[in-house]
Amino acid sequence: MVKTTIDEAICKGCGLCVQVCPKKILRLAVHRMNSKGYNPAEVTDQDACISCAMCGIMCPDSAITVEKEDK
Question: How far apart are CA 9 and CA 35, in angstroms?
Answer without folding.
Answer: 7
